[in-house]
Amino acid sequence: MKTLDGWMAERMGLAGPLTRPALAAWQAERLREAIAYARAASPFYRARRDWPAAAIASTADIARLPFTFAADLSRNDPPLLALSQADVARVVTLPSSGTSGPPKRLHFSPEDREATIDYFVHGMGLFTRRGDRVAVAFPGGAAGGIVDGLAVALGRLGADCRRAAPPFDPEALAAWLRAERPDVVVGAPVPLLAAARVASCAAGAALRARAVLLSSDHVAPSLARSIGAAFGAEVFQHWGMTETGYGGAVDCAEHCGCHLRENELLVETVDPDSGAPARPGAVGVVVVTTLRGRAVPLLRYRTGDLARLIETPCRCGSILRRLDGFSGRASEAITMPGGGALSLPRLDDALFAVQAVSDFAATFDEGPPATLSLSIAAPPALHGGAVLEAVRARLANDTVVGPAVRERRLSLELSLADAILFRREGKRRLSKREAAECARRC
Ligand SMILES: [Zn+2]
Questions:
Q1: If you measure from the C-alpha of residue 142 to the centroid of ligand 1, how many angstroms do you get, rounded to a whole number?
Q2: Architecture of the domain spanning 1-322
Q3: Looking at CB atoms within 10 Å, which of 26, 139, 179, 235 has the fewest?
Q4: 251-269 residue pLDDT tens
Q5: If you measure from the C-alpha of residue 320 to the centroid of ligand 1, how many angstroms do you get, rounded to a whole number?
Q6: Phi/psi of residue 285, each to 5°?
Q7: Boundaries of every domain in the chain
Q8: CA of 375 to the centre of ligand 1 (A)
Q9: What is the distance in A from the centroid of ligand 1 to the CA of 250?
Q10: What is the CATH number of domain 333-441?
């Protein structure tokens, strides 16, 4: 199996070892083509009038282009689709990230789909061997297109793709994983952790795998450690979304950031407020441009995900840029009274460090008084009733939540939840109740 760099160089038609200058020049050329294609074929981009006058000379010039927002995709007027319906191989409908508004609809051509499968072959190939049994467990809406594509990719690798069937309650998932005896497990982080927690306190063999790939949600460091320990596995992470053709960036054996799929995506990070390029090393909103997307070309699409872009070469030898420091969704960022940022990844890292916690729901009410309500799911056999005290103690050590609670700027409300949390629809979120909304409601 080639390295990701070697595979990408081959797909880009670049000879010799991949270098940053060669990749940047190739991307600049694709960027010019992508802009021309979008302006010619996509009604949304054809109707835009805010294009820069000067030509795009390098990838850095992308900052002069206007953004595309999630709202543009869900409004779909004018439509973004650049192909006729007859040339579309797959349509995926996603609920909008807010509670209202039309859903986002993404289209994929056969070429888009093949590019994703090819990426899966080489991404999964980093830790999957011929003959491996690969257990794929994506709950709810994440299944469908992504699992089908993964199954094709695993077939090309000579591996056996086993798919978990819903429901995804922890007991059923733990039993399935135990019966499948996989070499590699792929799934969303929290359901896999919950299954591992349940398995650890039930009779029967522990869950085992050589490698676990976590995708479709951010992965808190404490959660990755817990899953690694529970499965006795090396844990890899993947970042991507439907808008990036599912594939986006994948972890290497050095585990110091996810290497970007730079043969398809030009990725920037920008300041959430100003939209200016994020400072080097700072967390910003991830903005993607599809360099070769045929059905729905996206130019400077604001994904809403917060992360840090690393430009320096990796210890693994790759020159591909990396994303790390995943910090949740920009739309869910909460500034605490008295300072400090609260996010779901921060809460994840604190709560999943508590051995018994297998899931939780969080709501921040800005009050007054500002209140963080946490509804916590935990197998009783693992905590004997002491889980809420353990969570409170762990949050006391958090550098944002701890001082806010001690200084009475934040009130904590903890309760135990039943397993209904695991059957949630869509993404995990940090819910927010704002003062104005409360005033209207009250
Ligand atoms: Zn690396």
A1: 26
A2: 3-Layer(aba) Sandwich (3.40)
A3: 179
A4: 999 999 999 999 999 999 9
A5: 8
A6: -75, 130
A7: 1-322, 333-441
A8: 37
A9: 9
A10: 3.30.300.30
